[in-house]
Design brief:
Blueprint lengths: L10 H8 L6 E4 L6 H9 L5 E6 L2 H10 L6 E5 L5 H7 L6 E7 L4 H5 L25 H5 L4 H12 L4 H14 L5 H11 L11 H11 L2 H15 E11 L2 H16 L18 E3 L8 H6 L7 E7 L1
Parallel strand pairs: 1-2, 1-4, 2-3, 4-5
Antiparallel strand pairs: 5-7, 6-7
Helix pairs in contact: 1-2, 7-8, 7-10, 8-9, 11-12
Length: about 300
């Protein structure tokens, strides 16, 4: 297990927007290393409760160690896409006061070479958030069709040179199986004809492969939809995103709920007949200069908050 520190992005802002009732029931859908969970628990009353969720077995171990004596806390091992199921098991459907989602990869996952997320350190090409299940990135890059690799790099990594890089991966694996992170990073870098200033040329490709391996966007869409039945009226949804694909999904979801039913233009309906389900709380928030000085990874974070009507 990594001893690397984890910096919880937009910590105070997220918890302040989340907590509407100190004795309420809350969900931290991405426990990570427990930074947000710790502040939620410090802010809750004696009758409050926090359920955390995480895919990563290391995160589960940290939770059990960190909050072993905390009766107001529990953690479930799985994806936040299973949130509806976890909530139903506890009889809390429609009774949850707040859901917090801090998306992306935690600092320990990035910093521990053995997890295979980093293109800066050499390690086995894994990239699974749940290291106990599913296909590794190595399995995928060595077996996927060239067109599929290009689709993932373009769609999830927003990589301009997706086709060129996919071709290089397929050609390279024919000569030697791709098993290491730096091995893949070199293949990508060599195939990338225009490196972005200040950005490692493997950044976008690694992002795309990671999102695909962990089913991140589909899981996010699932939990956003589930939040409508999970939250109580007045309950808060707080989401911190780290790239445009995530933020776009969250922004569009909130906008759809605010707008209500799509009806033909000119149809005479009253405001309450539109069946609006959420309202946006404030504007999208970003880390301030002080936080950026402490943690450069905060620079891409965007937080959005919505409240169930």
């Amino acid at each position: 297990m990594s001893n690397s520190p984890h910096y919880s992005v937009l910590l105070d802002e997220a918890v302040n927007h989340l907590l509407i009732d100190k004795d309420g029931f809350y969900i931290d859908g991405t426990f990570g290393r427990g930074g947000h969970s710790a502040l939620v628990l410090n802010s809750l009353g004696q009758n409050g409760h926090l359920m955390a969720i995480d895919k990563d077995p290391d995160a589960i171990a940290v939770a059990h160690e960190k909050f072993a004596e905390e009766k107001r806390f529990e953690i479930a091992h799985g994806s936040f896409a299973q949130m509806q199921e976890f909530v139903a098991e506890r009889g809390k459907t429609g009774l949850v006061d707040g859901i917090l989602l801090d998306l992306g990869v935690s600092s320990p996952q990035l910093d521990e070479a053995e997890r295979g997320f980093s293109f800066m350190q050499d390690g086995p090409l894994d990239m699974r958030m749940n290291s106990s299940a599913g296909m590794t990135a190595a399995d995928w890059v060595n077996s996927a069709e060239e067109t599929e690799i290009a689709r993932v790099l373009k769609g999830y990594g927003e990589e301009r040179f997706a086709k060129r890089i996919a071709r290089a991966i397929v050609e390279s694996r024919q000569a030697k199986t791709i098993t290491r992170t730096l091995q893949l990073a070199r293949i990508v870098a060599d195939a990338n004809p225009a490196w972005e200033k200040g950005k490692n040329p493997a950044t976008r490709a690694f992002q795309g492969i990671r999102i695909h391996i962990n089913n991140e966007l589909a899981d996010l869409e699932a939990v956003l939809d589930q939040s409508l039945s999970i939250l109580k009226p007045g309950g808060r949804l707080v989401v911190i995103s780290f790239h445009s694909l995530e933020d776009r999904l969250v922004k569009r979801f909130i906008r759809r709920q605010e707008k209500g039913q799509e009806l033909p233009p000119g149809l005479p309906v009253t405001e309450d007949q539109l069946d609006k389900t959420m309202r946006s709380v404030g504007k999208a928030m970003k880390a301030d200069a002080g936080e950026l000085a402490e943690n450069i990874r905060s620079r891409s974070a965007v937080m959005r908050v919505a409240e169930k009507l």
